[in-house]
Amino acid sequence: MRTLGTILLLAMLALPAGGCGESDKGDKTDSGQRAKKQKQSDDRGGGYLDHLMDTRRRAKEMSRNLPARQTVEAFHALKGRYPKDLQELKKEFPAFPDPPQGMKYNYDPRTGKIEVVPEK
After folding, report:
1. What pTM was estimated for this model as a whole?
2. What is the pLDDT of residues 64-112, one digit of tens each?
3. Fewest CB atoms within 10 A around its CB: which of 58, 85, 92, 110?
């Protein structure tokens, strides 16, 4: 009886691994194509390194915007509205940070959105 149970258990485990002929061909082709695309991406410098560099760029962008955004939000919390312009913001918060060299603030008083953008 124990042998019959072992045989049944092995048969059940072997079924999913065996699959049915046609889907095996598709799976091998799909995985081959995925491997080829990944190699092409790696050859172009893509993949993990590109993702890492993009993440670093976004983090740097966010850190430039953060002090200005926090100041705008503090004004909003105190006054219940966004400042009409950056001059009004600077009057309320004299320590408002200047943008990094070669950059400027782009401010929308309707939404309170402030960004650091390159000067042109």
Report:
1. 0.51
2. 778 889 999 999 999 999 999 999 999 999 989 888 888 899 999 999 9
3. 110
Cβ contacts of 20 within 8 Å, gap of 6 or more:
none
Residue 54, number of CB atoms within 10 A of its CB: 10
What is the per-residue pLDDT across 56-66, written as a single tens digit (0 to 9) for each?
888 777 777 78
Of 78, 87, 82, 79, the C-alpha closest to 105 is 87
- Gap between the Cα atoms of 110 and 83, Å rounded: 9
- Cα 28 to Cα 7: distance, rounded to the nearest angstrom: 29
Spatial distance between the Cα atoms of 40 and 43, rounded to a whole number of angstroms: 5
Structure tokens at 36: 């080829």
How far apart, in whole angstroms, are the C-alpha atoms of residue 94 and residue 71? Answer: 10
**Looking at residue 1, what is its pLDDT?**
54
